[in-house]
Specification:
This protein is globular. 19% of the residues lie in helices and 34% in strands. Strands 1, 2, 3, 4, 5, 6, 7, 8, 9, 10 and 11 form an eleven-stranded antiparallel beta sheet that branches. The chain is of the alpha+beta class. The chain has one domain.
Length: 255
C-alpha cells in the first residue's frame, strides 16, 4: 500500500452495538470492544477524509487523542476525489480498496504482541458507508468486506462509530492512528516497504534526534498534501506549503 509518510522520508468511543469483525487473520480474530470516527480536514476546515477504528481497547478515543494506540485494531480510511483528482468530502457509497480515484478505501489490521506491532494491509475489498452524520454528535455507519495480508485472508464486519474529537485531528488520520501508516492521497505514489515504515517509526521515537521536527513535517504533509496531474505527491507544492516545518527539520539535522 502507498503510505503518505514514506513519500517524505521515505471518538467518543462506542461499545459493542453495531460493531463487528468476522474472520481470522494469522489464526486470530479481533474482539471489538469500541469504535471511533476521526475526521480529516484541510486548512479551511473542509472535510477531506474519514478514519474508522475498531479496537479491542476500552479507552479508544483517549488513546487516539494521545496518538498512542495500544492493543489490536482495524483501521479503515475513506477518501473521495472529484474529476480533477482533488479531494472532496466523503459521502455514503461503496469505497473500494482497488480504486485509484473516486471513492477509495484503505485498511490495515494492527496486531500487537508485547512490544512487537504487525500490520496486515488490505489488498482488496469494499467498504460500504451507509450513513454519515456531521456535527458534535457525528458518526459513521456501514459494513466492510476486506482481504488482508499476504495470505489474502477475508474478513467481514460492520461499524457504527461515533466521532472522536481530538486536539489535533491531523495527527491521527493515519490508519490505526499511526503517522507512519497513513495512506497517501495520491494513488500513483510509490509503494511503501516495511523498511520504509520502520525507518519512519524510528525517526518519530522521542529519543531520536529531531523527532519533533520530523513529526511536524509529517503532520503538515498530511494536512496539505496535493497531487499532480499524474496523481503523484506534488513535491513543489509541499516544499512551499510546508517550508517552515521543512526548514526546522533540516536545521535540526544539520546541528
Amino acid at each position: 500500500m502507498r503510505y503518505l509518510a514514506c513519500t517524505v522520508l521515505l471518538s467518543l468511543a462506542a461499545c459493542g452495538s453495531g460493531n463487528s469483525f468476522t474472520g481470522t487473520v494469522g489464526g486470530e480474530s479481533l474482539v471489538v470492544k469500541q469504535s471511533a470516527l476521526v475526521t480529516g480536514t484541510d486548512s479551511s476546515g473542509n472535510l477531506t477524509g474519514l478514519v474508522i477504528v475498531l479496537s479491542d481497547q476500552v479507552d479508544l478515543c483517549a488513546q487516539l487523542s494521545s496518538n498512542k494506540l495500544a492493543g489490536n485494531a482495524l483501521g479503515i480510511s475513506l477518501t473521495s476525489t472529484g474529476a480533477s483528482g482533488a479531494l472532496v468530502p466523503p459521502t455514503p457509497g461503496d469505497y473500494r480498496v482497488e480504486a485509484t480515484g473516486g471513492l477509495q478505501a484503505r485498511a490495515s489490521l494492527r496486531r500487537t504482541v508485547g512490544t512487537s506491532v504487525s500490520n496486515f494491509d488490505a489488498k482488496a475489498g469494499t467498504v460500504k458507508l451507509s450513513a454519515l452524520r456531521s456535527g458534535a454528535d457525528g458518526s459513521a455507519a456501514g459494513t466492510y468486506e476486506l482481504t488482508l495480508g499476504e495470505a489474502l485472508e477475508k474478513v467481514t464486519g460492520s461499524f457504527n462509530a461515533p466521532l472522536c474529537v481530538v486536539g489535533n485531528t491531523v495527527t491521527v488520520i493515519g490508519v490505526g492512528g499511526d503517522l507512519c501508516n497513513t495512506p497517501s492521497k495520491c494513488s500513483a505514489d510509490p509503494m511503501s516497504s516495511d523498511a520504509d515504515k520502520k525507518a519512519c517509526q524510528t525517526a518519530l521515537k522521542s529519543d531520536t534526534k529531531c523527532s519533533a521536527e520530523y513529526r511536524g513535517v509529517l503532520v503538515c504533509l498530511q494536512s496539505k498534501q496535493k497531487c499532480t496531474t499524474e496523481n503523484k505527491t506534488d513535491s513543489t507544492a509541499f516544499a512551499t506549503d510546508c517550508k517552515p516545518e521543512l526548514d526546522a527539520y533540516v536545521a535540526c539535522v544539520q546541528k
